[in-house]
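Q: Hi! First time asking for a complex rather than a single chain. Here are the components, and I think there are two in total. Is that enough to go on?
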Amino acid sequence: QKEVEQNSGPLSVPEGAIASLNCTYSDRVSQSFFWYRQYSGKSPELIMSIYSNGDKEDGRFTAQLNKASQYVSLLIRDSQPSDSATYLCAVKGDDGYALNFGKGTSLLVTP
Amino acid sequence: DTGVSQDPRHKITKRGQNVTFRCDPISEHNRLYWYRQTLGQGPEFLTYFQNEAQLEKSRLLSDRFSAERPKGSFSTLEIQRTEQGDSAMYLCASSHDFGAAQNTEAFFGQGTRLTVV
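A: Yes, that's all I need. Here is the structure of the assembled complex.
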């Protein structure tokens, strides 16, 4: 069973702060990693993808990948109340086509 | 709009009835996925198509579930003899195959919320 683990939260941060979301995965041969944002009652929206060790920045978002530690994270700088949502970590292994999702971390950004 | 489109958005059905959902992927996306999501959980993989070929199915997928993608365009997901446990959001996603194992960014449709009463 390929596990993707996330702290369910809620993670509460004040507006303007950095939100740090973490994800670990069990399949050592995983190659592709994604972060999705999901507002309540809506479908997941892709915000970041990362494939190589290190950091990848896109606007206020930074994804960090450490394959040796089987760990991927998402940093949100200058958090806004509109960032309040559930953040889903998704991992794709080297075999198969499915994305395996974690249960998501609920983020609350307070004004 | 060129996003993934799902129909219907909501479906209420009586237990034992059959239901069918449709997904229209982003144009030229040859990969199509079906997922199911229940409250408080992440999306659970159901099945995957590359063009018209169904290449992967979840081992957890009941025989009551069947999916098709004729001509490699839109896809349908049918649930026969629905049960209350089938109540969930059914999500369709599509991606483009660039020929590499990586780079499989998948984009989701709005989902179909199924309620079995």
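A: Residues 30 and 93 of chain A are 4 Å apart (CA to CA). Let me know if you'd like any chain examined more closely.
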